[in-house]
């Protein structure tokens, strides 16, 4: 039996799900195909994901393919209660998610989803898979395979595989080009700044924005922040990524120096304690702290609390002000959790269209003969990535060239010289 906040919100949820669906033409096409082919007939799916309008599109697609779906939230601050209600009341999914639930409730919902006995698991950050292996190994027997859609989750899965702890195959959907190149770069880039502006109403033009991490997410953020007129400083631990940032014209500094310069700080590294007490101690009055990495560990919130002599909670929605002994004020957004989902609505639906198309097609691929893979982290087949890109281009009325026969021969021959 589902656990949601208010079933009466279903009508509003249906309307918002329909609005998002307009911007997800690839997933709609796959849903129509699934309704005919039924590749997931009889499969039980447990998903730990952000309960948003875009996720609802994926859940409905899996259902069209014949699956029964149980959904729990991968972040309590991102749960949209009206969407959860619509999925239960109108679309027949099991949902265990309430906006703002505490840590105990969060993990109780993960357990409830796992207790449905899934054949496939879909994860966003590896908490579902982690809980399954550590707390509920008794339920692993039914699981044939899984998918992971975040960088943080893939890192954790690779570590599990190296230690021989991973007991079923998991496909790194995050690592497909149509996911990380677009979702991370364009989705995170736009939605993170959207969340910061909604939470603070600050003008980004002329501000010095420090971005910790220059992976796909960091690149997207840096590009968009510069486009809005901000001065961008990048911090990195990877020499190659730092060089890339520098050659793109961004200032590159260690965090110890960047902490003195920045007015807005955004962490997107996938690691913990990126902004620590020694950094907080030298920041300017009014500095804004935001995280867009998956877990709430990138900004040391405990160190911030220890430095503060006073905390003003909710000075604006999703903004808490910490007053230090010398009178400086530091503003923490979304409790250090994902600012783009807690203070805004996450990625635009047009971006999630590709990410969830990758998920849906990968689930079908696993269900139709590939769930017998070795217990390891696997790549999405290239043909799935290519198909999603092809469908997206077609939905945008964009055509591309095809190789001629001579060009094909040339690319596949070593005998032809200059």
TrEMBL record:
Stretches assigned to the S-adenosyl-L-homocysteine hydrolase NAD binding domain: 184-346
EC numbers on record: 3.13.2.1
Pathway(s) it belongs to: Amino-acid biosynthesis; L-homocysteine biosynthesis; L-homocysteine from S-adenosyl-L-homocysteine: step 1/1
Co-factor remark: Binds 1 NAD(+) per subunit.
InterPro entries listed in its UniProt record: Adenosylhomocyst_ase-like_sf, Adenosylhomocysteinase-like, Ado_hCys_hydrolase_NAD-bd, NAD(P)-bd_dom_sf, S-Ado-L-homoCys_hydrolase_CS
Keywords attached to this entry: Cytoplasm, Hydrolase, NAD, One-carbon metabolism
Annotated transmembrane regions: none
SMART domains: AdoHcyase, AdoHcyase_NAD
Cofactor list: NAD(+)
Source species, domain of life: Bacteria
Catalytic activity: S-adenosyl-L-homocysteine + H2O = L-homocysteine + adenosine
Binding sites annotated in the UniProt record for substrate: 52, 124, 179, 183
Compartments reported by the entry: Cytoplasm
Transmembrane as UniProt keyword: no
Protein purpose: May play a key role in the regulation of the intracellular concentration of adenosylhomocysteine.
Designated name of the protein: Adenosylhomocysteinase
Upper lineage: Bacteria, Bacillati, Actinomycetota, Actinomycetes, Streptosporangiales
